């Protein structure tokens, strides 16, 4: 276990605002100009940006760094977050169906974090799982253009599900900020 004095020095690629992840002109999330029109388009854009933020937090790290539980006693790691969000995407599809639920992606509870080990095959599989599950959930939700429509056994509004997705990614991007800074000192934005 590291002592506080062994924490990496903070760093950033930004030169305009040194407390930012990168310069605003280099940020792929900054689309310049007015935001999207409409509730669904706005929610989808926020979700897209948080998904991209998570990927940015993981960029440039090797499997050991991605699997490192850098904020003890938490079992979280960046790789665990990628796996967790793939699992959560799958679970959200269960909320919009009246049928049998899809099985857990990684099996037992907490396997998304517990089995996030420093192996390139595990990393590659986690990213493939996340992309596949995101696409499947996006496709399932695209069938419901009315954000007020209620679906699934719990009669949840599509709006509520979309807001919850944004919240889940936003919360975990905050975790990713701390995890990444403890790994190599790179600051969040």
Structure description:
51% of the residues lie in helices and 2% in strands. The protein is mainly alpha-helical and 189 residues long. It has a single domain, classed as Up-down Bundle (Four Helix Bundle (Hemerythrin (Met), subunit A)). The protein has a two-stranded antiparallel ribbon with strand order 1-2. The longest helix is centred in the last third of the chain and has 27 residues, at 158-184. Residues 1-5 have low confidence and may be disordered.
Quick overview of this protein structure:
It contains six helices and two strands. The protein is mainly alpha-helical. The protein has a single domain (43-178), classed as Four Helix Bundle (Hemerythrin (Met), subunit A), CATH 1.20.120.450.
What do the pLDDT scores average to? Answer: 87
Number of strands: 2
Determine the CATH superfamily.
dinb family like domain
- The level 1 CATH classification is Mainly Alpha
What is the ordering of alpha helices and beta strands? HHHHHEEH
- CATH third-level topology: Four Helix Bundle (Hemerythrin (Met), subunit A)
Radius of gyration, in angstroms, nearest whole number: 18 Å
**Spatial shape:** globular
The CATH architecture classification is: Up-down Bundle
The helix count comes to 6
Question: How would you characterize the largest beta sheet?
Answer: 2 strands, antiparallel
Distance between the termini: 27 Å
Low-pLDDT residue intervals, each spanning 5 or more residues:
1-5
Number of domains: 1
Proportion of residues in helical segments: 40-55%
Strand arrangement in the largest pleated sheet: 1-2
